[in-house]
Amino acid sequence: MDRETRALAEKHFRGLGARLPDGVCGPPGRVDFIEKPDAFSYADFFKGYLLPNVPCVFSSAFTEGWGSRKHWVTPDGKPDLDYLLRKYGDMVVPVANCGVQEYNANPKEHMPLREYISYWKEYIQGNYSSPKGCLYLKDWHLCRDSLRDTSVEDVYSLPVYFSSDWLNEYWDAINVDDYRFIYMGPTGTWSPFHADIFRSFSWSVNICGRKKWLLFPPGQEEALRDCHGSLPYDVTSPTLLDVRLHPACARCSPPLEVTQEAGEMLFVPSGWHHQVHNLEDTISINHNWVNGCNLAPMWHFLQQELHAVQREISEWRDAMPDWHHHCQVIMKSCTGINYKEFYHFLKVIAERRILTLAKEMGAGTVGSVGDSRLGTQQAAFDVSRITEVLASLVANRDFQRVDTSTFSLQPE
């Protein structure tokens, strides 16, 4: 990040104050297509897409040198199932059944990759049909699960545009988890309507195959709720035309539709609900990520999640000892994070950015922290965003009820 971009970003957030960015009334008329890597800088992406929170597609030129595009694909552009079988066949992968609805998602099971590849081959031979259903390998943590055998560089190179990635930086620092995923499945596999975890950004690259994305900007999903307040499972379902079931649906703008080709990379902004269909046998790599630009929406989302838990068990408030503590426990089990862990997340990223700034000022010898490509202007911007959200967190009445006595640094 350069000084000009940082100044623009900080002015943008000062203008918002404590407010969240306004939702987009309707989708933009088109999604920009970024063709040439040499002509598109990090500042271009930050100012044109990350800050205004709008999607874009990068051409296949941006992923041309990736190992997965060389090794996972046959000469005719199909998934090289035999290579994947030889390389990763014994690894256990999560598989969803696209033909079965479980709440607003699909039930998952785990199986060895060799079993899934055997199913996939049979599915193709059966004219894309199987008594086992339509199975989709989703959310496979390949890089985490094969750390000893496979480096990330053997599979892909993280584009600089997405390198301010606090979510994966944090999970790497505590060595617990990550939000880097592989998806693969035959024609017809799909992901139901959803917004990404924690209101994170995401990026998705088709290693091979084609996807159709249906994208709705923040706020548009409210018009899609049914008469019970629930979001739809499938936005292509004819039931959405029933005004008794979906009384506000007519007010929703049509989705922004994107067909993503092989090698192309899609940026999905924070809070954009979407539904995704594989138009061909497809493999993709996806990351969820958070940084200073969507930290406030993440914090707002966590407050909403806690309030939902509190409403759900409100009748036990007076009878249950440590009711507030139990709400935090339930929130973590449902959401994956609670206020205590969110504080620790902010602390870890802040400490790493402060080390970067200390190194720049010559305050001793400090190792490389985070992604060195983004520089000290990015670190200063990050600290300013953490400062604002941390102040809001510390002032929050529910956070003040959290036992912070064991924290290595006290919130104040």
Automatic annotation (TrEMBL):
GO terms for molecular function: 2-oxoglutarate-dependent dioxygenase activity; catalytic activity, acting on a protein; metal ion binding; sequence-specific DNA binding. GO terms for cellular component: cytoplasm; nucleus. It catalyses: L-lysyl-[protein] + 2-oxoglutarate + O2 = 4-hydroxy-L-lysyl-[protein] + succinate + CO2. Its cofactor is Fe(2+). Keywords: Iron, Metal-binding, Oxidoreductase. GO terms for biological process: positive regulation of translational termination. Residues 147-306 form the JmjC domain. PROSITE patterns: JMJC (PS51184). InterPro entries: Cupin_8, JmjC_dom, JMJD6_ArgDemeth/LysHydrox. Interacts with ETF1. Interacts with the ETF1-GSPT1 complex. Belongs to the JMJD6 family. This is 2-oxoglutarate and iron-dependent oxygenase JMJD4. It comes from Loxodonta africana (African elephant). The lineage of its organism: Eukaryota, Metazoa, Chordata, Craniata, Vertebrata.
